[in-house]
Amino acid sequence: MAGLIDGLSGLALLGGVFFVIVGGVGLLRMPDFYTRLHAASITDTLGAGLILLGLMLHGGWTLVSAKLLLILSFLWLTSPTATHALVRAALSDPENPRPLLSKDAPSSKS
Amino acid sequence: MFAATACGILACMILAMARALMGPTVYDRIMAVNAFGTKTVLIIAVLGFMNGRPDFMDIALVYALINFIGTIAVLKFIRYGDMGWPRNVPDEPDDL
Amino acid sequence: MLHALSLWLFCLGLWLLLSGSFDNALLLSFGALSCVLVVFVAWRVETIDPEEQPPCPRFGPQLLWYWPWLLWRVVLANVNVVKRILDPKLPIDPTMIELKPSQRSDLGRVIYANSITLTPGTVTTSLSGDNLEVHALTREGADELLAGEMDRRVAGLERRIP
User: Fold this and answer.
1) Does B9 reach chain A within 8 Å, measured CB to CB?
2) Is the pLDDT of residue A17 over 90?
3) Would you give the distance in Å from CA C92 to the centre of its chain?
4) Looking at the 3D structure of chain C, how many domains does it have?
5) Tens digit of pLDDT for each residue in A73-100?
6) DSSP string for residues in A60-93
7) CA distance C113 to chain A (A)
8) Is A22's CB within 8 Å of C120's CB?
9) Same domain, C62 and C38
């Protein structure tokens, strides 16, 4: 049983590292600011979630796990708020470049 | 296992730092610093488990709080030019 | 008054969780006092509105079913965006769309907008009145939002409002 929990915890940690690194790669590869935000949100949601889940599995039913859960719920609440504030500020800045849009958008506002 | 996780997060922190240094606009830099802060929270938690010091979780929690408030504060500073009451509001009063 | 008491109880629970000390009477009383101070400051800055009930009971048990569904959507969207990032051709297709959310309360709209932003691949760029603008990384993500399943689910959360 303990070995199973350890294996699951290791899997969650490795998966979390994978998502975190892919988020970092996306941060470098994406062409403009607005698409980079999507890459950053991978790191914030599933990367952080899996790493903290792996640590929680390792910690078991203790106060440390409760604190990890608190950190996780806090990250999941604040990261959309910070992203929304960023994109609001970027769009309301007239000197900032507009988002690159594809040609055949369904109801895009040009 | 924890050491490998910490190394992976460090590699990603280097990528985020590269974006913060390259970023053409100031918003790219703020976003990169925000992502960097999220990874700092994760690495503090992992290091706490690695060294067997669960007190690090409190530091990680406080860092998560400060990271969010710092991002919002920098955004507000860039938009209004000061941290006090927005006296000369550019267009929308109840923003941010 | 009820709201202030519930806020105090919440602060006390959080304090107990974070401190982890349950047997030192002096520390416990300090914790209770600091929670009283927090409630006083919240009353001074007028975040406790005596007219308004705390928002959670209005939402009922559907919220417990919404969270796992949202979690599953977030996982699916993560896998989709990860595939696109790792593809050498970078097949992205950024799109701006406008949505008309069907939620009646402000809190419901905020939950909807936050859920959209939390899902990778879609970011809410503006929320004003009953108009919502979304920047989507791909056409498929935008089409999924236009189909409006998430909108219906969030609207279903607040059906209990009289």
Assistant:
1) yes
2) yes
3) 27
4) 2
5) 999 989 999 999 888 888 887 777 777 7
6) -SSHHHHHHHHHHHHHHHHHHHHHHHHHHHHHH-
7) 9
8) no
9) no
Cβ distance A105 to C146 less than 8 Å, yes or no, reads no
**Size of the A and B interface in Cβ pairs below 8 Å:** 135
Return all residues near A50 (Cβ < 8 A) that are at least 6 apart: A12, A13, A15, A16, A19
| Inter-chain residue contact A19 with C82, CB threshold 8 Å | yes
**Residue C53 in domain:** no
Alpha-carbon span B25 to B23, nearest angstrom: 6
CB contact under 8 A, A33 and B58: no
Sequence ranges of the domains in chain B: 2-80
Chain A contact set for C86 (CB, 8 A): 22, 25
Q: Do residues C40 and C63 share a domain?
A: no
Query: Nearest CA to CA, how far is A3 from chain B (Å)?
Result: 14
Q: Which residues of B fall within a CB distance of 8 Å from A64?
A: 54, 57
Which residue, among A91, C144, C69, has the nearest Cα to B75 in the 3D structure?
A: A91
Sign of CA dihedral B81, B86, B89, B91: positive
pTM: 0.83
- pLDDT tens profile C137-153: 888 888 888 888 888 88
CB contact under 8 A, B11 and A23: no
Q: Is the pLDDT of residue C115 over 70?
A: yes
Q: Dihedral through CA A45, CA A73, CA A81, CA C99, nearest 10?
A: 70
